[in-house]
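Work Package 3 committed the consortium to producing structural models of liganded targets before the mid-term review. Because experimental data for this complex are still outstanding, the team generated a predictive model from sequence and the ligand definition alone, so that downstream docking and mutagenesis planning could proceed in parallel. The input record is reproduced below exactly as it was submitted to the modelling pipeline, together with the SMILES string for nicotinamide-adenine-dinucleotide.
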Amino acid sequence: MRQYYAMMVDLTSRRCLVVGGGPVAERKTVSLVNAGAEVVVVSPTATPRLKQMALLGQIDWLSRSYRSEDGEHCFLVIAATNDQRVNRTVYQDAKKRGQWVNVVDQPALCNFTVPSTVQRGKLTIAVSTSGASPSLSKKIRRELEQTYGDEYALFLELMQEIRSLIQRQVPDAHLRYQLMKELVSDRWIEQCRTNPHGVRELMLRWIDQQISVQT
Ligand SMILES: C[C@@]1(CC(=O)O)C2=NC(=C\c3[nH]c(c(CCC(=O)O)c3CC(=O)O)Cc3[nH]c(c(CC(=O)O)c3CCC(=O)O)/C=C3\N/C(=C\2)[C@@H](CCC(=O)O)[C@]3(C)CC(=O)O)/[C@H]1CCC(=O)O
Ligand SMILES: NC(=O)c1ccc[n+]([C@@H]2O[C@H](COP(=O)([O-])OP(=O)(O)OC[C@H]3O[C@@H](n4cnc5c(N)ncnc54)[C@H](O)[C@@H]3O)[C@@H](O)[C@H]2O)c1
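The resulting structure, written out as tokens with the ligand in place, is given here.
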């Protein structure tokens, strides 16, 4: 069995090519744009959403068929046309250039696959079935969406701030570890859900108390 390596990639300002303009190309394009990529879509037709993104300047849309040179200077390439020969050409061009390439309906022509993801601010939960069942990935993603709500986005904002505060103010590694462990309790996550405006104050007060008791 192929064992995939899960990796978080920074696509900020990376040029990425999407070939095709149907619903699948749209899904992949939206996720690339959300990751900060500079996306070029090449396709004679495009979904209304892709057209709107082009009008808003969120993507470049070249309204024509794919040409091999379209992939030049791209970090990553996705082939999402309904023409298998075009998809294969896109794959071969990308492979020659040593690029990351994904052909949406042919796992054998992918050197990476796209997982199903839940995004809550800095929290990303990704689900992959190693290509065995994208529908199962989607089902699990929907279940996770019910469990992990928007409170996790706020929680991570606070954790980022408070973790660096603890790293600066608590020299004892064991105490630091204890505090970090207690902060990720359900109690604080629940506070983020029910008391989003007051939770930061409560957390900071709690940290102060813990530090003065233990040092
Ligand atoms: C997760 C998600 C991300 C995304 O695309 O953004 C994704 N597919 C999604 C949905 C979805 N895709 C398909 C259906 C129809 C039902 C079905 O077939 O199950 C549905 C469900 C729907 O649309 O409702 C059809 C399909 N997809 C692939 C094949 C080829 C094959 O299996 O051989 C075929 C059959 C083509 C055919 O039969 O003609 C291949 C791939 N699809 C992958 C990802 C990669 C493996 C991910 C993993 O390991 O789980 C991989 C290998 C390559 C890739 O595309 O990266 C996204 C969920 C988004 C969400 O969360 O909502
Ligand atoms: N939509 C799904 O959920 C789904 C499910 C299973 C499989 N698939 C497969 O994924 C692929 C894409 O799906 P879709 O629903 O987005 O297809 P679609 O038919 O809606 O869109 C295909 C797009 O490819 C473009 N295209 C065709 N030839 C091109 C060329 N030479 N250069 C550039 N663009 C070209 C078309 O203009 C169109 O925009 C198809 O092969 C489909 O069989 C899709």
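Reviewers should note the following from the model. The mean pLDDT is 96. These observations will guide the Year 2 experiments.
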